[in-house]
Amino acid sequence: MVSTRTATADDAATLATLAAATFALACPPGTAQEHIDAFIAEHFTLDRFTGYLADPGRALRLLVDDDGTAIGYTMLVFGDPIDPDVLAAVTHRPTAELSKLYVLPASHGAGGARTLMEATLDDARSRGVTSVWLGVNQQNARAIRFYGKSGFAVVGTKTFLVGPERHDDFVMEQVFGDALRQAQ
Ligand SMILES: CC(C)(COP(=O)(O)OP(=O)(O)OC[C@H]1O[C@@H](n2cnc3c(N)ncnc32)[C@H](O)[C@@H]1OP(=O)(O)O)[C@@H](O)C(=O)NCCC(=O)NCCS
Protein backbone atom coordinates (compact mmCIF):
# COMPACT_ATOMS: atom_id res chain seq x y z
CA MET A 1 0.00 0.00 0.00
CA VAL A 2 1.49 3.34 -1.02
CA SER A 3 1.21 6.53 1.02
CA THR A 4 2.51 10.07 0.93
CA ARG A 5 4.34 12.32 3.34
CA THR A 6 5.66 15.86 3.38
CA ALA A 7 9.31 15.95 2.32
CA THR A 8 11.73 17.30 4.93
CA ALA A 9 15.26 18.69 4.84
CA ASP A 10 16.60 15.13 5.16
CA ASP A 11 15.00 14.17 1.83
CA ALA A 12 17.12 16.39 -0.45
CA ALA A 13 19.30 13.55 -1.72
CA THR A 14 16.30 11.25 -2.26
CA LEU A 15 14.53 13.96 -4.25
CA ALA A 16 17.60 14.72 -6.38
CA THR A 17 17.91 11.00 -7.22
CA LEU A 18 14.20 10.66 -8.04
CA ALA A 19 14.30 13.81 -10.19
CA ALA A 20 17.30 12.57 -12.14
CA ALA A 21 15.69 9.16 -12.68
CA THR A 22 12.36 10.50 -13.95
CA PHE A 23 12.96 13.80 -15.79
CA ALA A 24 13.50 12.21 -19.21
CA LEU A 25 10.10 10.49 -19.01
CA ALA A 26 8.39 13.86 -19.44
CA CYS A 27 10.49 14.94 -22.46
CA PRO A 28 9.20 14.41 -25.99
CA PRO A 29 10.73 11.66 -28.13
CA GLY A 30 13.83 12.97 -29.89
CA THR A 31 15.06 15.14 -27.03
CA ALA A 32 18.86 14.91 -27.21
CA GLN A 33 20.37 12.83 -24.39
CA GLU A 34 23.14 15.41 -23.93
CA HIS A 35 20.55 18.13 -23.31
CA ILE A 36 18.69 15.92 -20.83
CA ASP A 37 21.95 15.12 -19.02
CA ALA A 38 22.95 18.79 -18.86
CA PHE A 39 19.51 19.78 -17.55
CA ILE A 40 19.70 17.14 -14.82
CA ALA A 41 23.25 18.17 -13.85
CA GLU A 42 22.21 21.82 -13.57
CA HIS A 43 18.78 21.55 -11.99
CA PHE A 44 18.62 18.41 -9.87
CA THR A 45 21.55 18.88 -7.51
CA LEU A 46 21.52 18.25 -3.77
CA ASP A 47 21.97 22.00 -3.21
CA ARG A 48 19.00 22.82 -5.43
CA PHE A 49 16.67 20.49 -3.53
CA THR A 50 18.09 21.62 -0.17
CA GLY A 51 17.12 25.15 -1.21
CA TYR A 52 13.65 24.08 -2.37
CA LEU A 53 13.01 22.30 0.94
CA ALA A 54 14.00 25.41 2.89
CA ASP A 55 11.84 27.73 0.77
CA PRO A 56 8.51 28.61 2.43
CA GLY A 57 7.13 29.37 -1.03
CA ARG A 58 7.37 25.71 -2.03
CA ALA A 59 5.88 22.44 -0.78
CA LEU A 60 7.39 19.05 -1.63
CA ARG A 61 5.66 15.72 -1.07
CA LEU A 62 6.94 12.16 -1.46
CA LEU A 63 5.05 9.06 -2.57
CA VAL A 64 6.40 6.08 -0.62
CA ASP A 65 5.80 2.36 -0.88
CA ASP A 66 5.19 -0.18 1.92
CA ASP A 67 8.76 -0.18 3.17
CA GLY A 68 9.13 3.60 3.03
CA THR A 69 11.06 3.72 -0.26
CA ALA A 70 10.36 6.93 -2.19
CA ILE A 71 8.77 6.19 -5.59
CA GLY A 72 7.50 9.62 -6.62
CA TYR A 73 7.32 13.28 -5.69
CA THR A 74 5.61 16.58 -6.30
CA MET A 75 6.61 20.19 -5.84
CA LEU A 76 4.21 23.12 -5.55
CA VAL A 77 5.44 26.67 -6.10
CA PHE A 78 3.21 29.35 -4.59
CA GLY A 79 2.86 32.84 -6.02
CA ASP A 80 1.96 34.56 -9.26
CA PRO A 81 3.29 33.02 -12.48
CA ILE A 82 6.24 34.77 -14.12
CA ASP A 83 6.02 33.40 -17.68
CA PRO A 84 3.90 35.86 -19.75
CA ASP A 85 2.11 32.99 -21.53
CA VAL A 86 1.08 31.52 -18.16
CA LEU A 87 0.08 34.94 -16.81
CA ALA A 88 -2.28 35.29 -19.77
CA ALA A 89 -3.74 31.80 -19.38
CA VAL A 90 -4.06 31.45 -15.61
CA THR A 91 -6.29 34.19 -14.26
CA HIS A 92 -7.30 32.90 -10.81
CA ARG A 93 -5.44 34.27 -7.79
CA PRO A 94 -3.94 33.22 -5.52
CA THR A 95 -2.59 30.31 -7.52
CA ALA A 96 0.20 27.76 -7.28
CA GLU A 97 2.20 25.88 -9.88
CA LEU A 98 2.37 22.10 -9.70
CA SER A 99 5.94 22.38 -10.85
CA LYS A 100 6.85 18.71 -10.63
CA LEU A 101 4.93 15.44 -10.51
CA TYR A 102 6.96 12.34 -11.20
CA VAL A 103 6.48 8.67 -10.37
CA LEU A 104 9.01 5.91 -11.09
CA PRO A 105 7.91 3.85 -14.14
CA ALA A 106 7.54 0.59 -12.17
CA SER A 107 4.72 2.28 -10.22
CA HIS A 108 2.82 3.79 -13.14
CA GLY A 109 -0.76 2.64 -13.62
CA ALA A 110 -1.08 1.44 -10.03
CA GLY A 111 -2.98 4.34 -8.47
CA GLY A 112 -0.05 5.86 -6.60
CA ALA A 113 0.00 8.96 -8.79
CA ARG A 114 -3.62 9.62 -7.88
CA THR A 115 -2.85 9.30 -4.15
CA LEU A 116 0.06 11.70 -4.60
CA MET A 117 -2.01 14.16 -6.64
CA GLU A 118 -4.85 14.21 -4.10
CA ALA A 119 -2.50 14.87 -1.19
CA THR A 120 -0.70 17.57 -3.17
CA LEU A 121 -3.96 19.31 -4.07
CA ASP A 122 -4.86 19.19 -0.37
CA ASP A 123 -1.52 20.90 0.38
CA ALA A 124 -2.42 23.62 -2.13
CA ARG A 125 -5.94 24.10 -0.72
CA SER A 126 -4.59 24.29 2.82
CA ARG A 127 -2.47 27.25 1.73
CA GLY A 128 -5.56 29.08 0.49
CA VAL A 129 -4.97 29.05 -3.27
CA THR A 130 -7.97 29.15 -5.58
CA SER A 131 -6.30 27.29 -8.45
CA VAL A 132 -3.36 25.08 -9.33
CA TRP A 133 -1.72 25.20 -12.77
CA LEU A 134 0.96 23.17 -14.52
CA GLY A 135 2.87 22.90 -17.78
CA VAL A 136 3.03 19.58 -19.63
CA ASN A 137 4.65 18.71 -22.93
CA GLN A 138 2.05 18.53 -25.68
CA GLN A 139 3.30 15.06 -26.68
CA ASN A 140 3.10 13.65 -23.13
CA ALA A 141 -0.24 11.93 -23.73
CA ARG A 142 -0.11 9.80 -20.59
CA ALA A 143 0.42 12.77 -18.27
CA ILE A 144 -2.19 14.87 -20.11
CA ARG A 145 -4.71 12.06 -19.69
CA PHE A 146 -3.79 11.73 -16.02
CA TYR A 147 -4.17 15.47 -15.42
CA GLY A 148 -7.54 15.44 -17.16
CA LYS A 149 -8.69 12.60 -14.89
CA SER A 150 -7.40 14.66 -11.94
CA GLY A 151 -9.54 17.70 -12.75
CA PHE A 152 -7.21 19.85 -14.87
CA ALA A 153 -8.19 21.44 -18.18
CA VAL A 154 -6.06 23.03 -20.91
CA VAL A 155 -6.16 26.84 -20.60
CA GLY A 156 -3.24 27.84 -22.81
CA THR A 157 0.20 27.02 -24.17
CA LYS A 158 3.78 27.91 -23.29
CA THR A 159 7.28 26.80 -24.16
CA PHE A 160 9.84 24.96 -22.03
CA LEU A 161 13.58 25.01 -22.63
CA VAL A 162 15.76 21.90 -22.33
CA GLY A 163 19.12 23.51 -23.12
CA PRO A 164 18.78 24.90 -26.65
CA GLU A 165 15.61 22.88 -27.38
CA ARG A 166 12.32 24.77 -27.17
CA HIS A 167 9.48 22.36 -26.36
CA ASP A 168 5.76 23.08 -26.68
CA ASP A 169 3.71 22.69 -23.50
CA PHE A 170 0.05 22.90 -22.66
CA VAL A 171 -0.83 25.02 -19.65
CA MET A 172 -3.46 23.18 -17.60
CA GLU A 173 -5.35 24.56 -14.61
CA GLN A 174 -7.67 23.25 -11.94
CA VAL A 175 -9.90 25.80 -10.20
CA PHE A 176 -11.10 24.79 -6.77
CA GLY A 177 -14.84 24.58 -6.09
CA ASP A 178 -15.30 27.65 -3.90
CA ALA A 179 -13.53 29.89 -6.39
CA LEU A 180 -15.67 28.51 -9.22
CA ARG A 181 -18.86 29.26 -7.28
CA GLN A 182 -17.72 32.82 -6.46
CA ALA A 183 -16.98 33.49 -10.13
CA GLN A 184 -20.49 32.50 -11.17
C1 LIG B 1 2.21 11.43 -15.13
C2 LIG B 1 2.21 10.27 -14.13
C3 LIG B 1 2.52 10.81 -12.73
C4 LIG B 1 0.81 9.64 -14.13
O1 LIG B 1 0.82 8.51 -13.31
P1 LIG B 1 0.25 7.10 -13.88
O2 LIG B 1 0.33 6.11 -12.80
O3 LIG B 1 0.97 6.82 -15.13
O4 LIG B 1 -1.25 7.55 -14.19
P2 LIG B 1 -2.52 6.63 -14.52
O5 LIG B 1 -2.09 5.29 -15.00
O6 LIG B 1 -3.44 6.72 -13.36
O7 LIG B 1 -3.19 7.46 -15.69
C5 LIG B 1 -2.59 7.53 -16.96
C6 LIG B 1 -3.67 7.44 -18.00
O8 LIG B 1 -3.08 7.61 -19.29
C7 LIG B 1 -3.41 6.49 -20.10
N1 LIG B 1 -2.30 6.31 -21.01
C8 LIG B 1 -1.20 5.54 -20.87
N2 LIG B 1 -0.41 5.68 -21.94
C9 LIG B 1 -1.03 6.55 -22.76
C10 LIG B 1 -0.74 7.10 -24.02
N3 LIG B 1 0.39 6.77 -24.65
N4 LIG B 1 -1.61 7.94 -24.59
C11 LIG B 1 -2.75 8.30 -23.95
N5 LIG B 1 -3.08 7.83 -22.73
C12 LIG B 1 -2.23 6.96 -22.16
C13 LIG B 1 -3.64 5.35 -19.14
O9 LIG B 1 -4.41 4.33 -19.73
C14 LIG B 1 -4.38 6.08 -18.03
O10 LIG B 1 -5.70 6.38 -18.39
P3 LIG B 1 -6.94 5.46 -17.89
O11 LIG B 1 -6.88 5.47 -16.39
O12 LIG B 1 -8.14 6.16 -18.43
O13 LIG B 1 -6.72 4.10 -18.47
C15 LIG B 1 3.26 9.19 -14.50
O14 LIG B 1 2.91 8.59 -15.74
C16 LIG B 1 4.66 9.74 -14.60
O15 LIG B 1 5.35 9.91 -13.61
N6 LIG B 1 5.12 9.98 -15.86
C17 LIG B 1 6.47 10.38 -16.12
C18 LIG B 1 6.76 11.78 -15.63
C19 LIG B 1 5.83 12.79 -16.22
O16 LIG B 1 5.54 12.81 -17.41
N7 LIG B 1 5.39 13.69 -15.33
C20 LIG B 1 4.54 14.78 -15.71
C21 LIG B 1 5.38 15.94 -16.06
S1 LIG B 1 4.38 17.32 -16.54
Can you walk through the features of this model?
With 184 residues, the protein is α+β, with helices and mostly antiparallel strands. It has one domain: Gcn5-related N-acetyltransferase (GNAT) (Aminopeptidase), CATH 3.40.630. The chain is built from 7 helices and 7 strands. It has a 7-stranded mixed β-sheet with strand order 1-2-3-4-5-7-6, with helices on both faces. Helix 1 packs across helix 3. The longest helix is centred in the middle third of the chain and has 15 residues. The radius of gyration is 16 Å and the shape is globular. The N and C termini lie far apart (40 Å). The mean pLDDT is 96. Bound molecules: coenzyme A. The site of coenzyme A has 17 residues, from strand 4, helix 5 and helix 6.
Structure characteristics:
about 180 residues, binds coenzyme A, seven-stranded mixed sheet, alpha+beta, Aminopeptidase, 7 helices
Low-pLDDT residue intervals, each spanning 5 or more residues? none
Q: How many β-strands, per DSSP? A: 7
Class, according to the CATH hierarchy? Alpha Beta
Looking at the structure, the CATH topology is: Aminopeptidase
Name the bound molecules. Answer: coenzyme A
Report the span from N to C terminus: 40 Å
Mean pLDDT: 96
H/E element order: EHHHEEHEHEHEEH
Radius of gyration: 16 Å
Individual helix count: 7
